Amino acid sequence: MDDLYRDYILDHYKQPRNFGELDPHDLEAMEHNPLCGDELGVHIRVKDDRIEDLRFHGHGCAISQASASIASEELIGMELEQVGKLGADWMIELLGIPVSATRRKCALLNLKVVRSAVTGDHAWPA
Amino acid sequence: MPPVAESALDVKGDFPIFARRFDGRPLVYLDSGSTSQKPKVVIDALAGHLRNHNANVHRGVYALAQEADAAYDSARSRVAAFTGAQPETTIFTKNVTEAINLVAYAWGRANVGPGDAVLITQMEHHANIVPWQVLCRERGAELRYLEVDERGELSLEQLDVELARGDVRLVAVTHVSNVLGTIVPVAEIAARARAAGAVSLVDGAQAVPHMAVDVEAIGADFYAWTGHKALGPMGIGVLHGRREILERMEPFLTGGDMISSVDFQSATWNELPYKFEAGTPPVAEAVGLGAAVEYLGRLGMDRVRAHERALTGYMLERLEDVPGLRVAGAPEAEARGGLASFTIEGMHPHDIAELADRGGVCIRAGHHCAQPLMSCLGVSATARASIGVYNEPGDVDALVDTLLAGREVFGL
Ligand SMILES: Cc1ncc(COP(=O)(O)O)c(C=O)c1O
Prior knowledge:
The structure holds two protein chains of two kinds. By secondary structure, chain A is of the alpha+beta class. Chain A contains five helices and three strands, in the order αβββαααα. Chain A has a three-stranded antiparallel sheet, covered by helices on one side. In chain A, α1 packs across α2, α2 (62-75) runs parallel beside α5 and α4 crosses α5. Chain B has helices at residues 40-52, 63-82, 96-111, 130-139, 156-164, 186-195, 215-218, 243-248, 283-299, 301-319, 349-358, 371-377, 393-409; strands spanning 21-22, 25-26, 28-29, 90-93, 117-121, 142-146, 168-174, 199-203, 222-226, 237-241, 259-262, 267-269, 325-327, 339-344, 361-362, 364-366, 382-386. In chain B, the strands form five sheets. Chain B has a seven-stranded mixed sheet with strand order 4-10-9-8-7-5-6, sandwiched between helices. In chain B, strands 13-14-17-16 form a four-stranded antiparallel sheet, covered by helices on one side. In chain B, β5 (117-121), α4 and β6 form a beta-alpha-beta unit. The mean pLDDT of chain B is 96. At the A-B interface, α2 of A face α11 of B. The complex binds pyridoxal-5'-phosphate. Residues 95-97, 125, 127-128, 174, 178, 203, 205-206, 226, 228, 369 of chain B line the site of pyridoxal-5'-phosphate.
């Protein structure tokens, strides 16, 4: 079996969880991957300082779509304060596959857009 | 059917990098649109210059410095001769991006003003878009685009309509599109621009390495290209300019070597081409490029083109074997340079390139520095396979094999 394109990655790619629009929503952001021009957006509904619900939208490669889908399941219910502290390692570990330096941004785009919506920080997660 | 033997070149052995193995597999390099591999003669010329003839140019009286001068001058003469230009109007830059910026700054700032327009096309590389965006914003001018149809072609009628508006100061077009492969009728466009009183610039980055280019015959006021795509080293580019225009232009970068004399408050400019080459130039890289064009000249650019056209035809044909694959641009090899940009339904271009690499095949994926064109094509990215003199039908077969295997990984 392929190291990168594991079954669960392809499953999340083909049937991404929590994708679409969320209206009404409290927070939103849109970020792009300069490498390929792919765009990913997020709508977030907040309740009691937690992410009550969230939807990603946009298109991208298997790595970026699967990362967003997998992350979404963890992010829903998370305290906003904790979201602000999430780093790159969290995402890479969650993804569970070896991500090369060039594909790192694909994996991190979803965290970038969520952090941008929650904290206004547009930096790539470190 | 693989292309017929009489048009085929067999020069892979001239390129040392193809001796390398990746996980035991040979290198299948289909990314010459990004940069070409280098023949041994170029590597040797570069190293030989550094080993035997290195000294700064333009200043030394000793024998070694004179050798360096002679090497630099002779590189310029070879490069100029290769493209039908004169050495005095052949300026060495860092790359084609810097060559275009040279024109945007040194010519554009003096000749484009409020109410004027710069006309480019939807299929330009960012290198031939952003300098004009910045110029137009700074000078209060308008940046307008010629449209590209599904075949990847421009409309000369639209060009005439734009030129008839009377405000176009510059027309800047690519010679060969790095995404669609379109071969643009640049001589015709330059002639129409000239008749309308506009200056013309051609981005020849994807043309000079792959077909016979005669800048005199094309007749554009500026013709720019980049050495590293033409078998030369990175760090050397070329700008050919019309003498009368270059003479009237102020310099771009200023400092040493480009002056004739300097007093405390002012300076006068050196003669062409040195006026546009401030500071110590990339001498060894120029020597390397000289060796590259000599090598290409020995192969014969018409043979290079015939080889690549046949291989492109074969590639277009073989890509039809991949279900869900769509090639952007004209379907015939005659109308295009040696490249194919494509998408595969159900697979993102990044994944296509990653899976191609599993089979040792190097292709590029992304927006190819042409985001405006990508939006016209309705995609954010494509995969691109591009051909060089050293490619063979077996490289295309390897590509198709990896694409088919990649579809399988994706369960398609
Ligand atoms: C058509 C075209 N123009 C410009 C460039 C930029 O070349 P360079 O990066 O060498 O300046 C490229 C290559 O990427 C190209 O394909």
